[in-house]
């Protein structure tokens, strides 16, 4: 039966934020917000600006969740080594909270165990490295403060791997269901045309997605499932929702600097790259940019170097089909972008997730090709 939640006409929207790691934000109308609150079982109020889903974008919130977790006492500045807050071998609820916060940023894969084991240490080291901290694998006061500032306080359901109350489930109907299907289709869990009905195909797609992300497999969309889905995908376009072939540029106009000669025209507004020849778009692909800490430069550049099987000497990561345009910044294929969508960011490069398209472009784009990076 169609319930109050899905009777609303709210839309889901992703606000891709170029930050420490870019994540989606689910925007819901006040009516949907009220419906979400009414539908959920009574629990402690959600401390979010938008009750539906909090922002998952690290560093993007001007005010972080004032978590009730005890704030660690800063280490004595005269001490040679920061005092650990948590370290390998620790156990308990605080470790579960650490794992849950790391999971929000896709550094840790649930379930939460409460054991500070090798997997947890590896996740901490990854988080520290991304922030430019010493990769010790030990949570000192600085690491903990940054992690708390970038995430929200986990609920009891999250800490102990329980499914939350369903927000959407089989039998529901409405535009929100269509948007969920479109998001699942972006990451190859849902196939076929999107509809307004939450039927068996949607349930199977949700089950698969939940299993892959390590959350309770119910086939119903609870708050955590929705947050993960939004964090890994972008706002579906009108074409996607209408089952038309998508336009990655979403109808944005070409920059005037892209209308003569051969140009890699890269639009930060639509997160798209267009290969343009004499003002005519030949290919359009989705792209991802650097974080606020390592932003992708804007302006007019040119391709000065190409490297088919490049590996970063700085980050030791694979950069296939790299076309360098400004220092170490390049357009290149990103397996992480292909796997995780916009739940992440580059180190300043322009990431492409369509392997076939970037492989073809690499062969078409000559040295000296103009590169224009702009906001439309």
UniProtKB/TrEMBL annotation:
Keywords: Cell shape, Cell wall biogenesis/degradation, Peptidoglycan synthesis, Transferase. Residues 262-374 form the L,D-TPase catalytic domain. This is Peptidoglycan-binding protein. The lineage of its organism: Bacteria, Bacillati, Actinomycetota, Actinomycetes, Propionibacteriales. Residues 55-90, 236-256 are annotated as: Disordered. Pathway: Cell wall biogenesis; peptidoglycan biosynthesis. It comes from the Bacteria. InterPro entries: LD-transpeptidase, LD_TPept_cat_dom, Peptidoglycan-bd-like, PGBD-like_sf, PGBDSf, Transpep_catalytic_dom. GO terms for biological process: cell wall organization; peptidoglycan-protein cross-linking; regulation of cell shape. The active site is at residues 332, 349.
